[in-house]
From TrEMBL:
InterPro entries assigned: Cro/C1-type_HTH, DUF5753, Lambda_DNA-bd_dom_sf
Coiled-coil spans in chain: none
Name of the molecule in the record: Helix-turn-helix domain-containing protein
Limits of the HTH cro/C1-type domain: 18-72
Originating organism: Actinacidiphila epipremni
Gene3D superfamilies xref list: lambda repressor-like DNA-binding domains
Length: 289
């Protein structure tokens, strides 16, 4: 398959896993090239995600590297077999690569766990709420840049709205629920969006009250995406609306899995979360009594 000048997150992850399999087999790039009857350049390009891999070739690679994990091989085969053009490709050359990577990650996830402290979860933001966030960016964004980001963020709702949407857990700090991003009317509509999302069978929404005190990852948003096999899970932890780093190491996955478990434990149950949201909405200026 021809080289790809700008590989997607999924392509880069597939290449990284092929490199990991080669390293686990104790093979150098030269030795792998000899086994697969190719060149060192092709091996390196494939592992960087710049050179496509067919399902047939992937099976040959797994066999040559002595892989003994059929579920992992099946998951990798699915990654290289899926050539569907994702909706996020419409934003290529309009937004930073990180925005496309996150959308692609969410779309293919088998489950999502999200925690936020300073703002509402990206996946549940209304158009007006997202626009207010992006207009507050420093350095300032142009209006076309703002609108492109807003359109992309609203499109991310599709990962949750589709018939086969994965289970999604949202842990939202009370500070995010109370911060009037865009003003009272925008926040009121945003709170309604949360309560509507919470009605879905695949969505669990829990608030972290001020009374819960300290907790892991303060001021940091966390997105944990489950894959078909745990080895392919991915975590994104960031402090700004434009993250640029996806983590796959076992150390990162374990750490943030534990963090999210702890936060879930101290958060309000779903029913009390809705009570808190209704209370906050009723206290907003302009609310009809």
């Amino acid at each position: 398959m021809p080289p790809r000048s700008n590989p997607s997150a999924r392509q880069r992850r597939l290449g990284a896993e092929l490199r990991a399999l080669r390293v686990e087999a104790g093979l150098s790039t030269e030795q792998a090239a000899a086994l697969l009857d190719t060149t060192r350049t092709v091996i390196s390009s494939t592992e960087a995600g710049r050179h496509g891999v067919s399902p047939q070739r992937l099976r040959r690679i797994a066999s040559a590297y002595g892989s003994t994990d059929p579920p992992l091989t099946d998951a990798l085969l699915a990654m290289c077999s899926d050539r569907t053009r994702g909706w996020w490709e419409d934003f290529r050359n309009l937004l930073p690569q990180a925005f496309l990577d996150i959308a692609e990650l969410e779309w293919h996830a088998r489950g999502l766990r999200v925690s936020t402290t300073t703002h509402m979860p990206d996946q549940l933001q209304t158009e007006d709420y997202a626009r207010a966030l992006f207009r507050a960016a420093v350095p300032a964004l142009t209006e076309p840049e703002v609108e492109a980001r807003v359109a992309h963020r609203v499109q991310r709702h599709r990962a949750l709205d589709r018939p086969d949407a994965p289970p999604c857990e949202f842990l939202v700090h009370e500070s995010a629920l109370r911060t009037q991003v865009g003003g009272p009317a925008v926040l009121r509509a945003q709170l309604r969006r949360l309560t509507t999302a919470a009605e879905r069978d695949n969505v669990t929404l829990q608030a972290i009250p001020f009374t819960a005190g300290a907790h892991p990852t303060p001021g940091q948003a966390v997105l944990y995406a489950h894959a078909p096999v745990a080895r392919l899970d991915t975590v994104l932890a960031h402090r700004t609306p434009a993250p640029d780093d996806l983590h796959h190491t076992q150390a990162h996955l374990t750490t943030y899995h534990l963090h999210l478990d702890h936060i879930r434990h101290i958060a309000l149950p779903p029913a009390k979360t809705l009570d808190l949201i209704h209370t906050i909405a009723s206290q907003l200026p302009g609310q009809r009594r």
